[in-house]
């Protein structure tokens, strides 16, 4: 089983920062730093909300309770007012003084006194920020490591809060302020980082330190890297919180809206903790999948199990192998992090291992069930039955599939299938089957007695879904003359659990997949293959049990055939899941009382996994779909999770393909329909849910246009357009990793100061720059939904007579 240290995450661990993907480049080099400078928000401090502006909505909630805000002003309305108030304050300050940095007090002067008490609202904002903020343990670890080396530490922030207000927030988040030598804030210094001014001011405090010996770390390239460079200071980009198109969290937002907003930054931090493992790219993808998706889902299951253990007084649990390979250490770690005493002892059991032991007799129904298993071979049939071949010679056909035996004729003119059927129904065959049933039952009950003392008192834990193994266990111990007193806990349960409960079983599920069930439960039950595979180790399912000469009974397990690469990827995912648990415990402790445990909201905590199943990224469909799956019930058949199907199934398009996946496995056997569709039509599902989320607005059109740009291999464009819509397109291009150097805005003068990383230009200047560069023809992104003919004509006219013919990208449905 994967073994990870149970030591909690701590900011005082002076080596923790070396495990951070972005900070690890400094390993062995901090002695060369003479001054460490850190950005504050989204670098040193993280928030327990999806977006910084969510703080404003919480201010309104609390202000309503305290009578400081009129009740007719909703939290969302106040949030929008607060954002607009800041924009107005900055505009006024720029007009009045020439610089746009403002204070919190200036912002609240723009809030009408009639809607609430501005002084109280401003005071509450600092308090709410403190409630939401926590220190990034990676950056704090580096800070303390530098202080141990007697390296001074400065904090620099482009922020409307004062240095005193920031100190209160930092102290509330748990930072030892005695370790901070200097704190500079743009609201007090009247200039920010992007211009280089704040860094120049920093250098005034440390004139004896050479600029190249100063290192600044921050999340914003323009402010923290380019701004630092203007002052001759080295900047290290720290994009842990940064959102972009390929981000798992963006895809979750498109499918579900904000998912686990309180935990969003924590999940991103855990995903950035992978450097120490030295992973290859595929392993890194799966490690992050463990921290971001598998970890949250399985830890929720662990917390739910622990809650029940507390309620029921349970001190020992028995997760079913093979999933217990990961679930057992996660249960152990969850209990330890929670301070609980819990013994976790896996039980080696499976559908095949319980099949014969759970029968009262072997009749026609049981035989028909086995003979209809797809791909089952003659040898595999006799293996699961435990019946010898001395009365009938099938030696020549052992490796033949049962289905093929229907068409193979023996010496006496009968088909091999008929011979098999008649042999197993004969008196001799039935006698052997009865003996096999008794032997299987004795071995299984003996194994349970040997390992657990009371075979009738297990507390099983499983992913789900039908309760087949659980029902078989209870029947087996009952047939052995014992009264079952078992408790069965499943992550997801189907309607069949209701039937089992009617039979007297205590079987419970965290999520329900049948009628009245949750969307996540239904999707997980439909497509469990890669979840199960990522939880398993390098051994197969339990086939049966054998007794040695000393009377010890041991499980016999199937052989697995996996590549070393696949094993390594699974292990990386499992380590990621275990890492997530430690980061979860860190934040839960940091925000004691403010955040609820995952088990309180299992449906919400299942959404990351549901999103992957329902709307996978192309990379996820590729990596997860290439995993192999072995069912191990009677047959050793192994297949890719996304096994190829005939091209004809795709010809009618993605929607028709997904509909076809409803056919029975004998017609079209698809484990993961959405994964298959994404591998063939990479962005179909994303586009579909983007349209739904946007109410069939312009977002899908913008996305389609940007996809065309990227498909053509273009990474840098000029933007042509005006107003809020053009700004929206500009930000979307950045979000997709495209570079917009120049914005040609017909309504803005070319010498206007830009608000972002671009320059305003005229079409004439754009032509001159293109011709001077000597490169290929420029590409223009045309941002308009109205001037569909005018704007392209203007661009082409501006380039008349030039050797360069611009490439135009327009938003088209």
Automatic annotation (TrEMBL):
Family annotation (Gene3D superfamilies): 1.10.150.400, HAD superfamily/HAD-like
Domain of life of the native organism: Bacteria
InterPro entries: HAD-like_sf (IPR036412), HAD_sf (IPR023214)
Designated name of the protein: HAD family hydrolase
